[in-house]
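Here's what a typical entry looks like (cysteine desulfurase):
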Amino acid sequence: MYDVYAVREDFPVLKEVVYLDSTATTQTPVPAVEAMVEYFYKYAGNHGRGAHRLAREATNRYEDARETVASFLDAEPSKTVFTKNTTEGINLIANSYPWEAGDHIITTLLEHHSNLLPWLRLQKKGVKVTIISPDSEGKIDISSIEEAFTEKTRLVAITQVSNVFGSIQDVKNITRLAHRNGIRTLIDGAQSAGHMPVSLKDLDCDFFATAGHKGLLGPQGTGVLYIKEPDILDSASVGGGTVSDIEGCNYVLEPSPACFEAGTPNIPGVIALGKAVEYVKKIGVSEIESHEIKLATETAKRLSELEHVEVYGPDDRAGIVPFNVKGLHAHDVALILDQTRKICVRSGHHCAIPIVRFLKVDSTVRASFALYNTEEEVDILVDAVADLKALVS
Ligand SMILES: Cc1ncc(COP(=O)(O)O)c(C=O)c1O
């Protein structure tokens, strides 16, 4: 197991706060931030657009980052597209797949709005959407997906880890089942990549969208989209960098990934993401996974022993612990935790209104863990929540 205290030295802000909001976005380690600074000071230039030394250096480092990220996810670099976040990746698929009226998409009530709204919007084009409900712990029964298959089903779009429950879905078997029926799958990996081993070869999904700024520890404004068969898509956005020739009214698009990355990309962000992924890889994603699960399981257990607290989600959770303090609004709890102990947790509907409603509440508090959190921080959170009893009794 790695030395969490040594790791914390690479995240200076952790000396100031108890950061338990890594599901929203993680902190970025010093080597990744330094890589960004180095870009600005030493070789800021555009990507793929120049023969001069700065443009060449920027292009090479950007493409090195693609190799690093693709290898980390066990994917081919040519099928690994940089985006600005998970949401953009999912929208890219929704907007570039050749839908026909009557096509059918299956998704779930668990989804973040990012993996729900792009599909719901397609209803305007005559695409039908079925939303599968999970059980009370946030798990989707594979058979309920199978029961929803029709001859017209083209896609199952599902999250690997719920950002509201922390529940983990069996996306590998869901993909197998879908493929047996000629249906593609899109996996929302926003809460899985960097938090648990992910091999896209092994998962065999058709699309995988994730963030650079969550488990991969990259800066905000970075994301990754894997596309198994780029040729089935039309580019959702075209312009500079996407085209190899134009003659009159005809044009020839570049092959993937260039045809999906229109315009100047987030070059410093992607280069920093590459460094951040190297950092995750060095520590070991399985070790990170065990560490986060241990802290989250301990937190859930101790919080559920408090009479005034309700904890949601399954026992076999990822590093996410949603809860409410009876008689207090989630936003008030979050504000008090911040004001009294500098604890940063998320509160609200977590951009997943349908599934929070399913819990028959309008919001929850969410403590979430990353590689840099400690047992002491669990103690601080549990003690602070225990103290809230005075306000509710
Ligand atoms: C499961 C899930 N999907 C999608 C998103 C959206 O991610 P992004 O902010 O990178 O677009 C999030 C963000 O929290 C998430 O948790």
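The chain has two domains: 30-282, 284-392.

More examples are in the samples folder.
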